[in-house]
Amino acid sequence: MDIVKFANGILWGKLMTWLLLGTGIFYSIRLGLPQFRRFGHTFKVLFGSRKSETGGITSFQALCTGLAAQVGTGNIAGVATALASGGPGAVFWMWVTALLGMATIFGEAVLAQLFRVKNDDGTYRGGPAYYLEKGLGQRWMGILFAISIIVAMPFVFNAVQCNSIVAGIRGAFFPNTNGGNTELYLGIIVAAVTAAVIFGGLKRIAHVAEITVPFMAAIYIIIAIIVVVLNIHELPTIIADIFKSAFGAKQVAGGVLGHTVAKAFRYGMARGLFSNEAGMGSTPNAHATADVKHPARQGFIAMFGVFTDTIIICTVTASLILISGQLGSGKTGVELTQLSLKTTLGTWGPTFIAIALTFFAWTTILGNYYYGESNLMYLFPNAQKSSILLVYRIAVLGMIIFGAVSSVPFVWELADFFNGLMALLNLIGILLLSGIVVKVLKDYENQLKLHPNVEPVYRNPESK
To answer: Where are the domains of the chain?
Structure first.
């Protein structure tokens, strides 16, 4: 435990924060700020993303699969923790990480598209493991990445997500149950519903994500808009507090909560980076599956995913909390979000948050599962034809049930270590391969200049 904690202190200290932030700045400059220049074009691409070239996974389905893993408990509980620890100024720094991360994830999605491989059923798979080997020629890095993401996301982090689901459901619907097998039964239910989806393969996961993710996000955003409209007179003050707290012009409740510029920066950056996952190496696994004519097209779709996760959904949660006036209540995490909605909309607020948390966490389980499957296929290309994939699926379901009834600190520390390791490997890869991303974007934009009304088509020079 001491060794792993020491390693995590290095990985998740200043090293990883500045690497993720620095990569976002680097890509923003090198690509010419595509998140601003092409922001309108991103929506144009999004509106045409529900069709596939050959009947495979659509661009929109790939986006929803990525968002399924991006949008999770961090958007509800994590934002509340960031606000409680860093004050309103943390929201501003979340926005900064999202805007920079949009450039980073553009590069990840493009590379995932370029170096992917085709499955027997006509679908694609790819991600950092694939471009670390094929792009950099470093198979050992690909193997290490694949092992890291399999340990961290479908196993341990899915156990954490199930733990959150069970805690939320029990708190909302079974508050008076002490002991017993409530957690076990709930864990088995979550595992059973998950099994019904993952045994259907990538196409079923993508189809469920395409329906569930937009629906749950829309409901959550609508509720938040209602709260904002009902309290619209407070909005100018809240926005002013966010900017003042971010730059130290006003230290909100400084004597009580100790909010400072440094804390706003630290917690806002951390929450933003870990929520939208830009640079972490997870979402490229989803974006590699999209059947599109040009890799840059999926890059723009990936940028929209970061925008949705952090600029929209995280801001929605922050708005609920700041409007409620409960930031100084002493609560944190999901309890703060529940209390905030209870204050603004009534007693049904905590129940709604529990339901939203359940949907967010469950779709994260599906996304994380697929990330693991894609990397398992990298390690064992014939896994589908052997019992390896079946064993993997059963192990994932077992960890979901384990997460419902257990909490082992060492396991969580180990997951943080592997998560940090995969992010480090991915960042090295996308930085060294940035020149390729620049060429792909230039090719896309040159085609648009010549033929504005024709969708660009990528011609891989190596295929000639």
So the answer is: 2-463
